């Protein structure tokens, strides 16, 4: 394959632009903000889980408190009814004894319920404080992830601006390259290496290896418009004038 030396020289510009594009892509992938955002996401998840656990426990305790209050109200209502009946006329001794026994039982039951109610209310107070703390932690975590997300987006945006400029430069360069030469370059580049390098004395700038003197002599004896490749890395070897 043949190509004018001046045209071949443009491959070095293209290789430089591609290297910059690669560096920008790597920089975007490895931004510190990505790791920070992942950590912030985990913090939000942990804080949300803690809040949900506290809310669930608070809800369970609220239902327990409501149940106990209903039971206490029922005992009080039953106690008031029995006292009214006991104070009424026409109550026989046996019925009076039974009513008094039931009142004693109701009093003990009310005492047990009120003790249970006090314990649950104390626990609910503690869980309430835990819930308040969990919600504060969640709010702080959400604020933090928003800040990290803003920094990440700004850093990505700055890189994207630079990348857009390099993409435009690349688009301009490829339009002036012959299809066959460009195809050869892209084939080499697709393998993951540097696709074009300058021959500097006896060294290839693409792989930076010292080349065999016999190979160098062959290259020097090849026509200037002949496209040659590095014997080490396969890159298009661009010779100086």
From TrEMBL:
<dbReference type="Pfam" id="PF24481">
    <property type="entry name" value="CT398_CC"/>
</dbReference>
<keyword id="KW-0175">Coiled coil</keyword>
<dbReference type="Pfam" id="PF02591">
    <property type="entry name" value="Zn_ribbon_9"/>
</dbReference>
<feature type="domain" description="CT398-like coiled coil hairpin">
    <location>
        <begin position="14"/>
        <end position="193"/>
    </location>
</feature>
<feature type="coiled-coil region">
    <location>
        <begin position="96"/>
        <end position="151"/>
    </location>
</feature>
<dbReference type="InterPro" id="IPR003743">
    <property type="entry name" value="Zf-RING_7"/>
</dbReference>
<dbReference type="InterPro" id="IPR052376">
    <property type="entry name" value="Oxidative_Scav/Glycosyltrans"/>
</dbReference>
<feature type="region of interest" description="Disordered">
    <location>
        <begin position="33"/>
        <end position="56"/>
    </location>
</feature>
<dbReference type="InterPro" id="IPR056003">
    <property type="entry name" value="CT398_CC_hairpin"/>
</dbReference>
<protein>
    <recommendedName>
        <fullName>C4-type zinc ribbon domain-containing protein</fullName>
    </recommendedName>
</protein>
<feature type="domain" description="C4-type zinc ribbon">
    <location>
        <begin position="203"/>
        <end position="237"/>
    </location>
</feature>
């Amino acid at each position: 394959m043949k190509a004018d030396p001046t045209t071949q020289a443009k491959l070095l510009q293209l290789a430089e632009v591609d290297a910059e594009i690669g560096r920008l892509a790597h920089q975007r992938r490895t931004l510190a903000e990505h790791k920070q955002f992942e950590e912030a996401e985990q913090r939000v998840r942990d804080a949300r889980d803690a809040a949900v656990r506290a809310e669930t426990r608070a809800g369970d305790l609220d239902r327990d408190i409501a149940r106990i209050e209903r039971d206490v109200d029922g005992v009080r209502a039953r106690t008031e009814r029995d006292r009214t009946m006991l104070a009424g006329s026409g109550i026989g001794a046996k019925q009076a004894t039974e009513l008094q026994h039931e009142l004693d039982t109701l009093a003990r039951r009310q005492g047990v319920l009120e003790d249970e109610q006090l314990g649950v209310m104390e626990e609910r107070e503690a869980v309430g404080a835990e819930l308040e703390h969990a919600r504060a932690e969640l709010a702080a975590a959400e604020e933090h992830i928003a800040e990290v997300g803003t920094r990440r987006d700004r850093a990505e945006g700055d890189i994207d601006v630079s990348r857009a400029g390099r993409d435009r430069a690349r688009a301009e360069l490829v339009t002036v390259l012959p299809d066959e030469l460009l195809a050869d370059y892209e084939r080499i580049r697709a393998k993951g290496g540097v696709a074009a390098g300058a021959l500097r004395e006896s060294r290839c700038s693409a792989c930076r290896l010292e080349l065999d003197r016999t190979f160098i002599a062959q290259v020097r004896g090849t026509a200037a418009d002949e496209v040659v490749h590095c014997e080490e890395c396969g890159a298009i070897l661009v010779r100086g004038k």
